[in-house]
Design goal:
Elements (H helix, E strand, L loop, with lengths): L7 E7 L32 E5 L7 H5 L2 E3 L19 E5 L3 E4 L5 E5 L5 E5 L8 H4 L18 E8 L5 E4 L6 H8 L17 E7 L2 E7 L14 H4 L8 E7 L9 H14 L13 E6 L4 H16 L4 E3 L8 H18 L21 E4 L7 E4 L1 H9 L5 H14 L1 H7 L7 E4 L2 E4 L18 H4 L6 H13 L3 H8 L1
Subunit structure: Monomer.
InterPro entries: G_OBG, GTP-bd, GTP-bd_Obg/CgtA, GTP-bd_prot_GTP1/OBG_C_sf, GTP1-OBG_CS, GTP1_OBG_dom, GTP1_OBG_dom_sf, OBG_GTPase
Family: Belongs to the TRAFAC class OBG-HflX-like GTPase superfamily. OBG GTPase family.
Length: 484
């Protein structure tokens, strides 16, 4: 069974979640509290799209549209960091264009080996060893790992070809590409025989170029009729468009001039998604099937008018191979000229462009659904919310300190926020308890650590008093009673 050709697929990709940090305290003999030693969580795996020259269709994504990378592992004690999640690589053919659901082009993948990050893995949370500071020497909490990015992407395959063959159904495009190259497309005498684009490699002297056979166009193809709309994208990269005209058609309502006019109208209505206009591409007209006497006479009649439009005209016959050599070298010359006019390609290099997720900017605006409430938006506050374990009081206090240093509390106070009013950050709503100077309020404990609150240890003053009692034998309180 022949494999299906799929040139468009919708996929759902999900990167791995980052692992949680570990809250641990080093313990060994004679060191019951040896300091925090919790390791960081591992980063989640990315989902990558990699161009592979051995892949020619998007068929795999048609049957398996969901892709998920590995999650990062949680950190452990003794400063052991969690393992990073496994990166998932998805192989795509050259010429794949990555778009959003709204049609925005994210990447144009044409060179083998090119890599595109389809979904970014979540960062691992910091362990309490990384959170230790002079003010917080023994953190009893760790940060949570961030969730991985999940998105829906549209993949479209737009063939990388130098020459595009366009024409009405059964005009002889498949026959032409079969005799000019080693491609073996299906050939028959009924409309829409070609259901998928065919690619062939053509050699003209020292020039080698690729040729794409686009399925037949009909009037209205640019509006979705027939097969044209689905496959017009395959001629967007072509250096030259070739009108293949059937001069031996038995349709009384068609002739070479009207066929060319109808195709030109459809090409003018189609807007390439990669930019540019098809009207700027060079045109060549091929009058096919001149081995039929009536077709040869018709070709002689229409040739002067087509040449008057500035289009090179070639009379060919795929059956007898008449005129094919001249056509091949003419197309090779046009392709060479087009390549010479293009800017010289530079060697590809990897450029790292980190996303500005740590942007200090944030906005505070009234909550339209909560009277007296406010909504805080910003990359850093929302990221801190995702990292916070709200079941840990000390972690919540750490979050409050970070928001205060960023200036969120000052901005809330400036806009008239009252203690106890609801504030929403990153989808989490809590009652605001300010800690900025100038705001009079009674604050509850930001965070607690039971190890620091343990008062069972003997203080220095108690040890000094115990030594005095052992030396003198009388407590200070008893001396005072005797004097009275």
């Amino acid at each position: 069974m022949a494999s299906r050709f799929v040139d468009r697929a919708v996929i759902q990709v999900a990167a791995g979640d980052g692992g949680n940090g570990c809250a641990s305290v080093h313990r060994e003999k004679f060191k019951p509290l040896g300091g925090p030693d919790g390791g960081n969580g591992g980063h989640g795996g990315d989902v990558l799209l990699v161009v592979d020259q051995n892949v020619h269709t998007l068929l795999d994504f048609h049957f398996r549209p969901h892709a998920t990378a590995g999650n990062g592992r949680q950190g452990q004690g003794s400063h052991r960091a969690g393992a990073a999640g496994e990166t998932l690589e998805l192989k795509v053919p050259a010429g794949t264009v990555v778009l959003t659901e709204d049609g925005e082009v994210l990447a144009d993948l044409t060179t083998p080996g090119t890599t595109f990050v389809a979904a970014q893995g979540g960062r691992g949370g910091l362990g309490n060893a990384a959170l230790a500071s002079k003010a917080r020497k023994a953190p009893g909490f760790a940060l949570l790992g961030e969730p991985g990015e999940a998105r829906t992407l549209v993949l479209e395959l737009r063939s990388v070809a130098d020459v595009g063959l366009v024409g009405f159904p059964s005009a002889g495009k498949s026959s032409l590409i079969s005799v000019l190259s080693a491609a073996k497309p299906k050939i028959a005498d009924y409309p829409f025989t070609t259901l998928v684009p065919n690619l062939g490699v053509v050699t003209a002297g020292e020039t080698v170029f690729t040729m794409a056979d686009v399925p037949g166009l009909i009037p209205g193809a640019s509006e979705g009729k027939g097969l044209g709309l689905d496959f017009l994208r395959h001629i967007e990269r072509c250096a030259v468009l070739v009108h293949v005209v059937d001069c031996a058609t038995y349709d009384p309502g068609r002739d070479p001039l009207s066929d060319v006019d109808a195709l030109e109208e459809e090409l003018a209505r189609y807007t390439p998604g990669l930019g540019g206009e098809l009207a700027d591409r060079p045109r060549v007209v091929v009058l096919n099937k001149i081995d039929v006497p009536e077709a040869a006479e018709l070709a002689e009649m229409v040739r002067p008018e087509l040449e008057a439009r500035g289009m090179p005209v070639f009379e060919v016959s795929t059956a007898t191979r008449q005129g094919l050599r001249e056509l091949t070298y003419a197309l090779g010359g046009i392709v060479e000229q087009y390549r010479a006019e293009q800017p010289s390609p530079e060697a590809e290099r990897i450029v790292l462009r980190p996303q500005a997720i740590d942007d200090a900017g944030f906005t505070v605006e009234p909550d339209p659904e909560e009277p007296g409430g406010f909504i805080v938006r910003g990359a850093r506050p929302e990221r801190w919310i995702r990292q916070t374990n709200f079941s840990n009081d000390e972690a919540v206090g750490y979050l409050a300190d970070r928001l205060n240093r960023l200036g969120v509390e000052d901005e809330l106070a400036r806009q008239g926020a009252r203690p106890g009013c609801p504030v929403t950050i990153g989808g989490v709503t809590f009652d605001w308890q300010p800690s900025t100077p100038g705001v009079v309020t009674h604050l509850a404990g930001r965070g607690t650590d039971v190890r620091l609150e343990d008062r069972s240890r003997v203080t220095a003053a108690q040890r000094k008093e115990a030594r005095r009692i052992r030396r003198e034998g009388v407590p200070e309180d008893d001396d005072e009673l005797d004097e009275e």
